[in-house]
Design brief:
By secondary structure, the chain is α+β, with helices and mostly antiparallel strands. It has a domain of 138 residues: Sandwich (Jelly Rolls). Helices cover 18% and strands 41% of the residues. The chain has two helices and 16 strands. It has a 16-stranded mixed β-sheet that branches. β6 and β7 form a beta hairpin.
């Protein structure tokens, strides 16, 4: 009896702890499916991997990646660098195609590209050779830069200079140099393992003293 009561208390404590752990981890429900040479925070991927806020994804010339997040998906083309943000992606270099019904945004330098409405929207963003290209493939998108806002309607495309202050003021150095080599910028901690371990512990405790059976869920 005492043992059973103790199990319940431990399970209750873990349930209270897990939301705090998840909050500290700042985890986003996204998964990367790599093809070819793809790096996540400087480490080459061979299998699918979680993609969290602040993470950096880089594809090489022979690489590409598909990203799945709730209600949205994205395809990162070769020779691209993409950072995951709380409300979407930041394109440092290359190109990304987004399909979303959740208003997922893409940032490119000073520009923010967002679906006009909550309907299913597909758009394509490129950032290379000193310019930023925006194509609205399905539904319209809003392009915001500073106090300026414009709309790219379905089937249309625009191009803007990749320069400071929305391309209105070009600094002497011009666009930033492309990043070479794998990126190593993440300070991800091992809280993910704690969350998984905590969840398994809660499940085991809930089973009591009964052994796990391969034929009994």
């Amino acid at each position: 009896m005492f043992h059973s009561a103790l199990q319940k208390k431990i399970a209750a404590c873990l349930l209270l702890l897990m939301p705090a752990v998840l909050s500290a981890q700042n985890t986003a429900a996204a998964v990367i499916f790599p093809a070819g040479t793809v790096y996540l925070n400087g480490a080459q991927l061979s299998n699918s991997s979680a993609f969290m806020t602040g993470d950096v994804l880089q594809t090489r010339e022979n690489g590409a990646a598909n990203i799945n997040v709730a209600g949205s998906s994205a395809v990162v083309d070769s020779n691209s660098i993409v950072r995951f943000q709380a409300d979407g992606f930041s394109l440092d270099r290359g190109s990304i195609s987004v399909a979303t019904g959740k208003g997922l945004s893409v940032y490119a330098r000073d520009f923010k590209i967002t679906p006009v409405s909550g309907e299913w929207t597909q758009f394509y963003i490129t950032r290379s050779s000193g310019s930023i290209g925006i194509i609205a493939r399905k539904a319209s998108v809003t392009v915001t830069c500073g106090s300026n806002t414009s709309t790219v309607k379905e089937g249309q495309q625009i191009s803007r200079e990749d320069a400071a202050s929305c391309g209105l003021i070009t600094k002497g150095n011009g666009a930033p140099a492309a990043v070479k080599g794998p990126i190593i910028t993440s300070d991800r901690v091992g809280l993910g393992a704690l969350v998984v371990g905590g969840g398994l512990t809660i499940w085991v405790l809930a089973q009591g003293d009964d052994p796990v059976s391969p034929t009994k869920p």
